[in-house]
Design brief:
Elements (H helix, E strand, L loop, with lengths): L1 H7 L5 H15 L12 H16 L15 H7 L4 H6 L6 E5 L5 H7 L19 E6 L6 H10 L4 E5 L8 H4 L2 E6 L3 H4 L3 H11 E12 L16 E4 L5 E2 L1 H5 L5 E8 L6 E8 L9 E7 L5 E6 L2
Parallel strand pairs: 1-2, 1-4, 2-3, 4-5, 6-11
Antiparallel strand pairs: 5-9, 6-7, 8-9, 10-11
Helix pairs in contact: 1-2, 4-6
The structure holds S-adenosylmethionine.
S-adenosylmethionine binds next to strand 2 and helix 9.
């Protein structure tokens, strides 16, 4: 457990090196990750409190690794290949929800006027713009956001904060053609199956959810030895399960995963397209959670 957190914070202590060695040995023996056997409520509560402190951090207290200002070009690099084209196909009455938007910079970039002096191929194209909703637990709006929202008017861009995705009634949010999540709820939630079910309930049929998840067992099985995983899944019998194979058990969706084995952490870029309304996401139970950015989590599939 300590070892996972140390890696999250990027420290290079002797403890971390020893933990990495233990992980390598454990993996070489085919024993999987080193986690406690039973979920412990008091330990989980302590970690949830620490996570809240990260969300609430301001100014110099914001941990360096807790990045909240990625722009649209970062989203283009971090999300599945099709994301920019799909954004470009949206019309002015369509809707895009960015869950875990931080400062909402990607939406500001999407609405930024073209640079006439140096025209560039912008993610999402230069045509009509969809209405966009940024969602964040904590309010990280900047002056730039306030100015842009006021100048666009008509609720073209909205910023929702003060609660998590699960705390919104469906009517408060409406439906979306595109939902994104870049190091947002998908990487941070302690209830992953409920989170995915809620996301899919907000998607129109034919719409897509674009996200990524770092530090996972890859679908293409090309992760290297010695990785400290951040999100681990196991089936009801305790055997390792890949995030993508779990997602593919969901009904009424098409799941595409792009495995990035050469990134610093093995990362899966995920596109979930909703194809009909009868969505059912196999339930996961949280077994372990360690606060971080993103946190380390272990889930088990419910029988
Ligand atoms: C590390 S920041 C990422 C911000 C932005 N996407 C970026 O890449 O710069 C994490 C964001 O996810 C939000 N978040 C985490 N869990 C969430 C949830 N369940 N519902 C809504 N927002 C969530 C946080 O409040 C924060 O805005």
């Amino acid at each position: 457990m300590r070892s996972v957190k140390s890696s999250v914070k990027g420290s290079k202590t002797a403890g971390t090196r020893l933990a990495v060695l233990i992980v390598i040995v454990v993996q070489a023996l085919g024993l999987g990750a080193v986690w406690p056997q039973e979920p412990s409520e008091p330990r989980l509560d302590k970690e949830f409190d620490k996570q809240e402190k990260i969300y609430r951090s301001r100014g110099a207290d914001v941990p360096r690794g807790y990045v909240t200002g990625r722009g649209l070009s970062d989203y283009a690099e971090l999300l599945p290949t099709d994301f920019c084209n799909a954004l470009g196909r949206l019309g002015s009455s369509d809707r895009w929800l960015d869950i875990g938007a931080g400062s909402g910079q990607s939406i500001l970039d999407y609405y930024a006027p073209e640079d006439a002096a140096a025209p560039a191929e912008k993610c999402g194209g230069s045509g009509a713009k969809a209405r966009a909703v940024a969602m964040s637990i904590e309010d990280r709006r900047t002056d730039k956001w306030q100015q842009q929202a006021a100048s666009l008017g008509d609720d073209r861009i909205r910023y929702l904060s003060g609660k998590r995705l699960r705390d919104y009634a469906p009517v408060e949010l409406g439906k979306f053609q595109i939902i994104t999540d870049v190091f947002g709820g998908f990487s941070y939630t302690e209830d992953l199956s409920r989170f995915v079910a809620r996301v899919l309930s907000l998607l129109e049929v034919g719409g897509s959810f674009y996200t990524l998840v770092p530090g996972v067992h890859l679908e293409n099985a090309k992760d290297k030895l010695g990785i400290l995983y951040l999100t681990e899944l196991e089936d009801a019998a305790g055997r390792p399960e890949r995030v993508c194979s779990w997602l593919k058990k969901t009904t009424c969706v098409q799941v595409t995963c792009e495995s990035k084995s050469d990134w610093k952490r093995p990362t899966e870029l995920i596109n979930i397209r909703k194809v009909c309304n009868d969505v059912s996401v196999p339930r996961l139970k949280l077994w372990e959670f360690e606060a971080g950015y993103p946190p380390a989590r272990r889930f088990q599939l419910e029988p």
